[in-house]
Amino acid sequence: MEALSKSKEERMINFQTSPDQYKHWKLNVAGPVATLTMDVSEDVTLGEGYKLKLNSYDLGVDIELADAIQRLRFEHPQVKAVVITSLKPRIFCAGANIYMLGTSSHAFKVNFCKFTNETRCAIEDDSRHSGRRYLAALNGTASGGGYELAIACDEIYLVDDGNSAVSLPEVPLLGVLPGTGGLTRLVDKRKVRRDRADVFSTLAEGLKGKRAKEWGLIDDYFPTSKFQESVDARVGEIVGKNGVGHASDGIKLNAVQLEVKPAGLEYKYVNLVLNREQRYADLTVRGPEGDSPTTPEEIQTLGDTYWPLQAYRELDHALLHLRVNESEIGLVCVRTEGNSDDVLAVDKTLEVNKEHWLVREIVLYMARVLRRLDLTAKSFFAIVEPGSCFAGNLLELLLASDRSYMLNNEDEQVRIAVGKLNSGALPMSNGLTRLQSRFLATPEKVGEVLAHSGAFDTEAAAEAGLITFAPDDLDWEDEVRVAIEERTSLSPDALTGMEASLRFAGPETMETKIYGRLTAWQNWIFQRPNAVGPEGALTNYGKPTQAHFDFKRT
Amino acid sequence: MEALSKSKEERMINFQTSPDQYKHWKLNVAGPVATLTMDVSEDVTLGEGYKLKLNSYDLGVDIELADAIQRLRFEHPQVKAVVITSLKPRIFCAGANIYMLGTSSHAFKVNFCKFTNETRCAIEDDSRHSGRRYLAALNGTASGGGYELAIACDEIYLVDDGNSAVSLPEVPLLGVLPGTGGLTRLVDKRKVRRDRADVFSTLAEGLKGKRAKEWGLIDDYFPTSKFQESVDARVGEIVGKNGVGHASDGIKLNAVQLEVKPAGLEYKYVNLVLNREQRYADLTVRGPEGDSPTTPEEIQTLGDTYWPLQAYRELDHALLHLRVNESEIGLVCVRTEGNSDDVLAVDKTLEVNKEHWLVREIVLYMARVLRRLDLTAKSFFAIVEPGSCFAGNLLELLLASDRSYMLNNEDEQVRIAVGKLNSGALPMSNGLTRLQSRFLATPEKVGEVLAHSGAFDTEAAAEAGLITFAPDDLDWEDEVRVAIEERTSLSPDALTGMEASLRFAGPETMETKIYGRLTAWQNWIFQRPNAVGPEGALTNYGKPTQAHFDFKRT
User: What ipTM does this complex have?
Assistant: First the structure.
């Protein structure tokens, strides 16, 4: 991973890569079968002071995995089965690197866990919506994050070599939780009995084939001599049966182009301006320019320059950059620029052609980027001004924001509008649309808003409950300025906890449990002296010194 | 609150009280209407170094509130409406006392929040299942925990005196969350729109009548001159309409009798032995002795000495004692002693007579105590030995435990059994029975287990998936001893987070969101320097010094 810029003291992390740059993974595609092989280079680390032994990983390794999964979806749509395995002898993956965790700041640890969780959820999203089947072929021990990667797959096969095991040793060895969704996936996804999950999660050495299968931790186990052929046979079954694949060629995902400026990042459709002194950013998304294509063939020809794909890739990149490289930015003011009708036309094209594989992938990706925004620990205010285009998919940016301010000016009307993608194509992690989340108290309003003919001017938007505030032009500047000043003066921790609570009302899913409940507990533990103090377990792991606990239960 | 004992350095907190001992509340019952009036005595505090100004509260105040609600249910079954109001001019309740929070240990803060949440949930449980309607008559400002108490009620009325407001000022003033379920109840119970909830929760001064009603924060507001009569009128409507009340006399809840020993507490049906050196406790619940009554009349005559009521009150007391007064105890080994058939006979009586008000209240209370156990941040191992009676309602103790060990001995058969109360009467916070939670992967087993005729011996119990381990008599002592040693050697924080994740698989409810998500975030914030460090907001509240934040977002 190269540094993007070193103008600040902290090293900037680059979230872009491609298979020819991978240091830790090999992506091999052979017709309908892709093999993702983990072969971590010990010395190629994102930070300093640790080695990535035993296929352990840091953020750099996971950025490659996220890239590979993304490319499978867009560049290799014919793939029906993805086998994740290891090139190291006797070890599948030892999980997140402990020395990396032990030397990382709290904020970095938390964002590292969040990103790796999003990568695992992207695997599950691919499986659920695009029908690719993921197989974890554990040709050696999978411990901690290694086993958590396996549970993100649809099927888990373990070699029975008398030695290889699956394990979640974080609690007994490190005094922290399996933080990549492990505990939640154990009881919610694989539905492992809770007392068995309790035993397994406190057993440093984990469980081997027979018991692991009996407890539901793996799907099957095979002796070393039959492992490869057994996995191949299962892959053959999937490839034979799975009808979702298609012969179409993929499109190429080229690197996202951006210009790094002292105070921000400039992309084609996204502009990020960092007001570092005031701890807020201005994030502007530009709508499509002029006529967009209307057929899948035209879209496929445009490839990654097609507006929704390019704009959302840029937005995704900007969000990751904000999270990890600009941790002191507490508030993001979201704006849009462009023509609402052009945005709505894109929505319509995407809706009409949703059965086409590329259109499906684009919409699923837009949904993932918007969920990335929902899950970003920064405040978001939508600022709706003349020239904006909060319509259709871009209206989701407003609905995802913690608040919205829409100018109320008789002389210069501002409008927002719903489109074809607001009614279900871009769900939140809790399974609801953002309109449903907004109108939990008055669910009938969802239909009314969706049935509304034409755009909403400011007063109609306020009346419909779509916006928070509608200051007139006399108050506008002051009100927005004061809101920004107030927000950025508040405790960032209290805001993070508050936003995590208020953004996800209503139903819960495995995803919201991972990002809400499990993450919050892990964040708590990541602060506790028993983990990260001088005598903590994480601090003392692998050292001759021993951890000592304050045994008070809370 | 008197100290229970001062043999340890820490002062022991006494969870027992009664109306004639109340220092902070007045409970007035007039026919079908009860009025709970808050009039906190500034100087009667549980800890030192703070005064309870403006009807702010500490744990002592909430212990009285919990007692009052419990007594309403058992001693005043004819009550149909409960009005909660204040005797202080212009202030309803200022919430949890900030100086108390600022000077409390982390463990105490967390347990304080948990207890107050359980008190609020007990109000909602009463409303939902026993049909009593709670009205918050806010004759003055309700801020923080004061407003959170109001949202736990069914209806909220605010005086419109130009001054009184409702507010959640924790984020702006203290850098922590409204920790008594406030944020969750705001968007999940009252379904306040998330952007409005965001504004409200960052607005120190809160909102007054008109806007508060418009945003759904209160149900109505009345001018000072009409406040009392308007509330009375609403109470009159409820009392007139509500058919759930009944003329029956209540039963008296006498103080739970116990003997405080150096190493534990001895009650009639519960015995708690503290192995403080080894950081675990032995908790034994004894079954009923001989024939139990079978009719409501006999039960009413026995009153609080009827086995399930007395045993569960003792268990409840022991759990609270363990949480707050024995924080270093990390593991509780749960045993039962007695005759399973006698326990099952009690279950049958409770099931047959469930329409009787007292029986209903007893079963609802048993369910609350078991939920208190589910939510206790200690590990629980059920130890099933000869002479035990893990049957029916006591089987829930085993199912609630993180693991169970059942002796497998041909010569001395041990048995467990299901009863009438295992199929729905004693739900967990997530709405499932403990059997449903156990068998999420194989829901058909719930029915099979419930339909099983007779008791399960050890092998049948293992076969049915009801227990975790079944060591034989040769291994028994070693296996249990090693399990205890291992458990108590682990990081207490990691265990707390792990148990909170594994105990509540499956669906989520407002309650599980409060205890899982919101609590975890608050616990995290309660550790952060931005709240509790020397420059933190909580530390600096009310001082001439100002809070300074590390603005890194996580």
Answer: 0.94
